[in-house]
Amino acid sequence: MSVAPSTIIFLNSKNRISGTPYDYYINFNNELIKAPKGHYIQFSVVQVSINRSWYSIQEGYNTWKVDIGGGSFFTVTVPVGYYNAFELRAVLQQTLPTWTFTYDKKVNKFTFTAPSDAGSWAGITERKFVFDNNSMSDLFGFDEWETPTFTQAQPTVVSSKPIKVNEDQSILVHTNLTRQKFSALDNTTQTISESDVLCAIPINSAPFDNVVYNRSSSDDFTYNVLSPTVHGMRIYITNEQNTFLKVPYDWTLTLQVKYVAFDANENTRLLHDLRDYARLLLLQNLPDTNDEDNQIISS
Question: Is residue 294 in a domain?
Fold first, then answer.
């Protein structure tokens, strides 16, 4: 395999032609990324820098329900923001002042106590927490399918597992150029599925500080692109649940572009890649049914 000289491309989301800092499109000059005859394009991620400026509790993932029986319930909303365990406990107490919320730092769990006065139980046999999504259940220290139940005789419930105030563990950078078998487990078939993930970055920085990835090896996050010319790309960032990380600030991505000569011994593999590329082009022309504000369909 022979490699032509490479090019380093510095991308900044502020230079987008459309979209938002967390989901945008960028165009290239027709001759900027163009493979010489007999070569294909290879991308490598060199560096990423993203400010951890999204909230731990985001809009659309900040509600749960209190079921009081007979088909009656009310919805409770936690204001969007970033909280530690003590701040979250205080907000819960303000939101439901007739309840009692305590936090045990040793085991990282909440204790929830329903109102104890007899009048508040008139016509009610039990109260239940019902979670709309796993973000809220994790915040409270429960699995999404659990329904913590309170009665007048037993009005107290303790988290069944440690609470998780920082829901996001990784930043996934996606692009429409790569369709690789990148750790995308399909639980229905127990196989590794194709993914459009360009790189995965563990979140090790404090809130509102920069999350930075620097390449440690030339083989880290390297992908082949079969199109001889790249005119532009879509780039977006999500957490490991494929939920958009709605950063309000622009961020940077540095790519290395190499032009690699075709190897006669790789014909079979390249034919498979061409088939996959043709299938990708077909899929990209299908109607988009994704929820653009929050959720995208797993690849």
Answer: no
Structure tokens that stand for 21 in this block: 């800092």
- pTM here is 0.74
- Shared domain for 16 and 37, answered yes or no, is yes
Phi and psi dihedrals of 121, rounded to 5? -105, 5
How many C-beta atoms surround the C-beta of residue 248 within 10 A? 10
Whole-angstrom distance, CA of residue 48 vs CA of residue 37 = 31
CA angle 234, 236, 242 (to 5 degrees): 130
**Local structure of 216: helix, strand or coil:** coil
Question: What stretch of H or E contains 50?
Answer: strand 39-51
Q: Both 249 and 279 in a single domain? A: yes
What CA–CA distance (Å, rounded) separates 177 from 215? Answer: 20
Q: What is the pLDDT of residues 242-288, one digit of tens each?
A: 889 999 999 999 999 999 888 766 555 665 666 666 665 565 555 55
**215 contacts 221 by C-beta, under 8 angstroms:** yes
